[in-house]
Amino acid sequence: MSITRRMLMTGLALGALGSLAAPQALAAPFPVPETLPLEKENYAEARRRFRTHLLKHGPAPEASPPLGTPPGAQKVLYRGGPDGSLELIAWLSHYEASGKPKPAVLFLHGGNATGDGHWELMKAYWEAGFVVLHPSFRGENGQAGNFSGFYDETADALAAATYLENLPGIDRSRIFIAGHSNGGTLSLLSGMTRRFRAAVPISAGVNSWRFFTRYSNEVPFDAADPKEFVMRSSACFGPSLKCPTLLLRGSEERPFDADHQLLIDRARSAGVAIDKKLLPGNHSGVVPGAVVESIRFFNQFT
After folding, report:
1. CB neighbours of 210 closer than 8 A, spacing ≥ 6?
2. By three-state DSSP, how is residue 168 classified?
3. N or C, where is the chain less crowded by C-beta within 10 Å?
4. Using CA atoms, how far apart are residues 260 and 293, in angstroms rounded to an integer?
5. What pLDDT, on a 0 to 100 scale, did the predictor assign at position 27?
6. 152-165 vs 182-191: helix crossing angle, rounded to 10
7. Does the pTM of the predicted model rise above 0.85?
């Protein structure tokens, strides 16, 4: 059973996944570098030049029901991808546009599907005065589009950011981004492509070789091309981060490791304000506290 499906059944905020064993690492069917390369090109420019080569075309690798509209949300449609060819669902918190523009948070969910359990955690943001947009991505929850494993999904996240900043009553200078797990990975890659006011990736992956070693059956792209992994690894593009960033992780997760420190060191070498912090909890149980911590961080820039 998928992690997201368990969240829907048991409630993420209760930390019910704490007893789950971590997936067993498998021998990688592709070469894994001992040292992650440092790309000289800015990530935004690299994205303009690169096109992922998918060998498998199909939905995200997580069975999930179609999306409804959870309490406290309104269902909206945004045009995903760089060419706007996909119509995808997002959930938007209720708000009224007023004379004073409002700050907003783009929150990217974990796993490869979304559900009401993810949305429940967004309440803390709108109670703190932020408008929240929670997008789904291509191939998820029965929607159109091909799963690409972090690459085209980054384009969807960027399209959702554009949708959010163009809503009436939103302060375009105070668009924040956060995300958990896979969403944390996407928030880093998004924050290297365009400027947000600040970013809080939670339990993010920064090394796609490491991720796909654990989930080799989910690789949809040409694994013989190292560039495919580079373009999905934020640690290879540390200097490209474009906003203050706080990396959060649960104390019961794998600790911040050499890959995360490499990202931090590379970002700091370019003058980026980036830090890390451990919070109590496991991979899923850390999220409620991390949302609260992200609000504290974002409030420094409001």
Report:
1. 32, 259
2. coil
3. N
4. 19
5. 55
6. 70
7. yes
